[in-house]
């Protein structure tokens, strides 16, 4: 996805301004020290702002400010896959404690594999296998507790 | 480095657990490196959450082995499919593919993998010899020297490895900004956490890295839309065919490539990939048969292949001795070492020599394993390369999620991975390099802390930054890196001005 230099430049300029103002306004002045916690952020934000301006100027000169989604356009499968990927990760964030890792992992992987073009049954089997491996490696080998969710008792 | 510490280090490594981990990591690295679309950096990123829970020696052994294998295995899809498995292989992908079309695929692969092993061993020897010497010198380093080292590393990463300097600088600044979240290094005051408890400790490095290197790569795979099986045209014969002749004929190339790779890789901020490109160019420049380059000639592959892996080993010299990583992979590893309490730096050499020696010894083990395992990989590559992308992507995604969750046992990590992953995908699609971001995250605190300390020592007088001799040299070199493009342009304009007069 191409986002023009101008858009990026504006983004960085605004971010820089935010960092600068936030640092100056909220960080306390440390008595006795020449430079406080706001020094480095301000330095970084000044450089970022300047670079952002350079990008904006360059972008305007090259007329490079359009969004170009051509690699994604016309291929519903690609868009669907990306949506499923990102949406899937969001489901982990929201539902991990409630539904547990195993259920979410198998469901998400299967759906993504099907959207990418695999058949349902092989997708289900491979997802189950991969989830099992990941679960065993992390819980049994590395002692990382993964939420059980609905399968808390297992 | 005394014999006792070497023996003690060997004792640390020759444990069944460590050897098993090295074996598994080698297989993992070969697998990931050989599949196009999965890079060595991603292999490291996905490995880190697993190594987080291991003891330090095993953890570093796993990372070193994986990266050595992955970078070498990246030559396989490069030669067979013209798709480099890792950026380092890209320097000679076209050459290798040309050889494949002439039916010499086995020679190309045999040569590149063997020279990778040789180069890697060469770099490791330099590492063993040079690192302690440099560490002795570095013991006298003050905040000024460390500041300039960090600045040099960051500057070279941002300005040298990309063609678009402004975007390289911006990537660096993004990394530095991310590193500023958390508690201020000098005063302990919380910064940029906006009241969110999880951000008090800063943006967790591992989910950030998994997002930027693994998730963004998966998004790119999906966007390109190539979900099927890659088609391999040829049958691979014996990789050792003609190897002896090639090695003997081009032994100078191996030596030159290895030395060049070691030298370039040891520079802070510059990694093994660039060494490969430079070595290929040098090989062509000094070859007796330069017109054969590009048509399927093994000489360039030999030189660049050995530069690749030697650069990989020597990139650890600044990482271990100064704590200033050479590239994204060593940055990740330095981050892991910090987390394990093995703070890289000159003190590590004096206080925990056996631990450090063990780390260095794993380089030798990993590169020696390239000989048998490389052969195995070439024999199996048909099968490895046939795994379709549409299966690889979801599988990698599962490990991304688990890895990001596992570090702090919190879904916040998954969120960090998602946000930074999407952000990194957008950045990389528009010409922003990702490596400076991770270097900024890892080196940001070092840069700031040493800067603040230096300012306190100097009482605000900037001239003090150049007062000490080593600091002065480093400072001038750093400024040189920043001013080089400007100076070069001015220099190029001089003759025309004279002509006009």
Tag the structure with descriptive keywords.
heterodimer, A: 154 residues, mainly alpha, two-stranded antiparallel sheet, 5 helices, 2 strands, 70% helix, B: 501 residues, two-stranded antiparallel ribbon
Write a brief structural summary.
The complex is a heterodimer of chains A (154) and B (501). Chain A is mainly α and 154 residues long. Chain A is 70% helix and 3% strand.
How would you describe what is shown here?
The complex is a heterodimer of chains A (about 150) and B (about 500). Chain A is mostly helical and about 150 residues long. Chain A has a two-stranded antiparallel sheet with strand order 1-2. In chain A, helix 1 runs antiparallel to helix 2, helix 3 packs antiparallel against helix 4 and helix 4 runs antiparallel to helix 5. Chain A is flat. The model of chain A has no long low-confidence stretch (mean pLDDT about 80). By secondary structure, chain B is mainly α. Chain B contains 22 helices and two strands. In chain B, strands 1-2 form a two-stranded antiparallel ribbon. The interface between A and B is large, with 67 and 57 residues.
List the helices and strands and how they pair.
The complex is a heterodimer of chains A (154) and B (501).
Chain A: E1 2-3, H1 5-26, H2 39-62, E2 67-68, H3 76-99, H4 101-116, H5 120-141
Antiparallel strand pairs in A: 1-2
Helix pairs in contact in A: 1-2, 3-4, 4-5
Chain B: H1 3-13, H2 16-34, H3 40-51, H4 56-73, H5 75-81, H6 93-101, H7 105-138, H8 143-159, H9 165-179, E1 182-183, E2 190-191, H10 205-224, H11 243-249, H12 251-266, H13 272-286, H14 298-314, H15 316-322, H16 328-339, H17 346-351, H18 353-385, H19 389-408, H20 411-429, H21 435-458, H22 469-500
Antiparallel strand pairs in B: 1-2
Helix pairs in contact in B: 1-18, 2-3, 2-4, 2-18, 3-4, 3-10, 3-16, 3-19, 4-14, 4-16, 4-18, 5-6, 5-7, 6-7, 7-12, 7-14, 7-15, 7-18, 8-9, 8-21, 8-22, 9-21, 10-19, 10-20, 12-13, 12-14, 13-14, 16-21, 19-20
């Amino acid at each position: 996805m191409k986002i023009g230099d101008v858009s990026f430049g504006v983004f960085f300029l605004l971010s820089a301004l935010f960092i600068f103002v936030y640092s100056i306004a909220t960080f306390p002045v440390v008595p006795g020290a020449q430079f406080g916690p706001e020094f480095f952020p301000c330095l970084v934000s000044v450089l970022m702002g300047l670079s952002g301006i350079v990008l904006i100027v360059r972008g305007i000169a090259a007329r490079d400010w359009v969004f170009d989604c051509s690699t994604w356009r016309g291929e519903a499968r690609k868009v669907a896959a990306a949506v499923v990927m990102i949406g899937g990760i969001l489901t982990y964030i929201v539902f991990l404690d409630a539904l547990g890792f195993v259920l979410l992992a198998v469901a998400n992987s299967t759906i993504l594999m099907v959207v990418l073009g695999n058949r349902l049954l092989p997708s289900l089997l491979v997802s189950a296998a991969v989830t099992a491996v990941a679960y065993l490696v992390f819980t049994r080998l590395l002692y990382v507790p993964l939420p059980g969710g609905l399968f808390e008792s297992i | 480095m005394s014999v006792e510490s070497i023996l003690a280090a060997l004792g640390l490594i020759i444990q069944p657990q460590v050897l098993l981990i090295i074996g598994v990591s080698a297989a993992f690295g070969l697998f990931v490196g050989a599949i196009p679309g999965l890079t060595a950096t991603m292999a490291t990123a996905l490995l880190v959450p697993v190594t987080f829970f291991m003891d330090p020696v095993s953890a570093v052994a796993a990372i070193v082995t994986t990266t050595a294998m992955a970078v070498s295995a990246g030559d396989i899809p490069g030669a067979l499919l013209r798709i480099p498995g890792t950026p380092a292989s890209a320097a000679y992908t076209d050459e290798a593919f040309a050889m494949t079309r002439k039916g010499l695929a086995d020679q190309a692969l045999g040569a590149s993998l063997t020279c990778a092993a040789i180069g890697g061993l060469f770099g490791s020897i330099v590492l063993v010899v040079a690192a302690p010497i440099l560490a002795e010198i570095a013991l006298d380093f003050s905040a000024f020297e460390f500041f300039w080292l960090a600045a040099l590393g960051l500057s070279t990463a941002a300005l040298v490895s990309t063609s678009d300097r402004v975007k390289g600088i911006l990537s660096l600044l993004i990394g530095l900004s991310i590193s500023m979240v958390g508690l201020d290094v000098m005063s302990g005051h919380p910064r940029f956490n906006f009241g969110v408890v999880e951000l008090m400790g800063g943006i967790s490095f591992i989910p950030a890295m998994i997002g930027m290197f693994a998730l963004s790569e998966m998004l790119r795979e999906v966007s390109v839309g190539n979900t099927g099986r890659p088609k391999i045209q040829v049958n691979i014969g014996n990789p050792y065919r003609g190897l002896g002749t090639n090695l003997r004929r081009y032994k100078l190339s191996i030596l030159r490539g290895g030395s060049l790779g070691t030298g370039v890789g040891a520079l802070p901020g510059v990694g093994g990939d660039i060494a490969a490109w430079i070595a290929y160019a040098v090989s062509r420049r000094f070859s007796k048969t330069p017109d054969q380059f590009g048509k399927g000639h093994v000489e360039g592959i030999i030189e660049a292949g050995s530069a690749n892996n030697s650069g990989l080993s020597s990139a650890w010299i600044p990482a271990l001795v100064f704590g200033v990583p050479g590239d994204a992979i060593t940055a990740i590893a330095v981050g892991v070492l910090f987390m394990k309490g093995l703070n890289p730096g000159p003190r590590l050499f004096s206080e925990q020599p056996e631990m450090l020696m063990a780390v260095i010894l794993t380089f030798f083990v990993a590169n020696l394993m390239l000989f048998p395992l490389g052969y195995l990989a070439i024999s199996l590559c048909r099968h490895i390369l046939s795994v379709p992308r549409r299966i690889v992507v979801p599988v990698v995604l599962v490990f991304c999620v688990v890895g990001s969750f596992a570090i702090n046992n919190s879904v916040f990590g998954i969120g960090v991975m998602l946000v930074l992953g999407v952000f990194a995908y957008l950045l990389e699609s528009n010409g922003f390099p990702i490596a400076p971001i991770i270097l900024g995250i890892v080196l940001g605190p070092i840069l700031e802390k040493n800067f603040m300390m230096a300012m306190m020592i100097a009482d605000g007088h900037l001239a003090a930054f150049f007062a000490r001799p080593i600091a002065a040299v480093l400072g001038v070199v750093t400024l040189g890196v920043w001013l080089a493009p400007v100076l070069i342009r001015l220099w190029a304009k001089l003759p025309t001005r004279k002509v006009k007069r």
